[in-house]
Amino acid sequence: MALLNVRGLMLLWKRIGEDDVMGLAAQLAYFFLLSLFPLLIFLVTLLPYLPITQEEMLSVVADFAPGETMTFIETNLNEIMNQQSRTLLSFGIIATMWSASNGINAIIRALNKAYDVKENRSFVVARGMAIIFTVAMIFVFIIALLLPVFGKQIGMFLFAKLGFSSHFLSFWHMLRWILSFLIIFIVFLVLYWLAPNKRFQCIDAVPGAIFATISWLIVSWGFSFYVSNFGNYSATYGSIGAVIVLLIWFYLTGVIIILGGEVNALNQLLKDETC
């Protein structure tokens, strides 16, 4: 990767300031927070049609979210679902599409800025693309929920047939994280390839996707460890401590997503210079 040198790293640091990466990440954190509960409501209302439980669904989020936030998410989600409103599914769909597509729009603007291109697609096309990406993300999330369920059942059957059932759980634990890595990588790869208003080969989006996937996993686990062991946000912010933790996690996620786009754009620039 052309970026892996001193000049490339210095240029990346310069572009972080010029493209206002931190400010754009704050926008993403706001839209992520707006999208969270409508998305969870929508997914929970689909659970009767899927072979998974609410606990299994939330466990996927719990694998990455800071521990303190899970109690906040579960409590508020249960309060909403206990209302038993018939309009929850339609509300979840509409609210998710609106807030999440705004978040995707913010990502598209950030990636366009990274590539120094203007958005000349019409409002209908740009919004339609954001909605399609939103639907695709929901579809990928559902697949991520279903893979562990069916994968574990298939794996236990095969390992029992082969006589290795006692070793399955350790193997499954390792495979589960590999699957999570691949799903997250594919999401970032497609996002970096199709979202910017610039056409290039899919392979050119790989460096940023790898960077974003590895960075997001490390930062999520690291931040979760810090919050669980050192950061007492409740002592500082009181009852909204969990919201602050959630916002910081979303902010870090936004920074990483935009940095992945910057990595791709700068890598492409450096490759063009050497040609």
Automatic annotation (TrEMBL):
<feature type="transmembrane region" description="Helical">
    <location>
        <begin position="88"/>
        <end position="108"/>
    </location>
</feature>
<dbReference type="Pfam" id="PF03631">
    <property type="entry name" value="Virul_fac_BrkB"/>
</dbReference>
<keyword id="KW-1003">Cell membrane</keyword>
<feature type="transmembrane region" description="Helical">
    <location>
        <begin position="129"/>
        <end position="151"/>
    </location>
</feature>
<feature type="transmembrane region" description="Helical">
    <location>
        <begin position="206"/>
        <end position="227"/>
    </location>
</feature>
<keyword id="KW-1133">Transmembrane helix</keyword>
<dbReference type="InterPro" id="IPR017039">
    <property type="entry name" value="Virul_fac_BrkB"/>
</dbReference>
<keyword id="KW-0812">Transmembrane</keyword>
<keyword id="KW-0472">Membrane</keyword>
<protein>
    <submittedName>
        <fullName>Transporter</fullName>
    </submittedName>
</protein>
<feature type="transmembrane region" description="Helical">
    <location>
        <begin position="239"/>
        <end position="261"/>
    </location>
</feature>
<dbReference type="GO" id="GO:0005886">
    <property type="term" value="C:plasma membrane"/>
</dbReference>
<feature type="transmembrane region" description="Helical">
    <location>
        <begin position="171"/>
        <end position="194"/>
    </location>
</feature>
<feature type="transmembrane region" description="Helical">
    <location>
        <begin position="21"/>
        <end position="50"/>
    </location>
</feature>
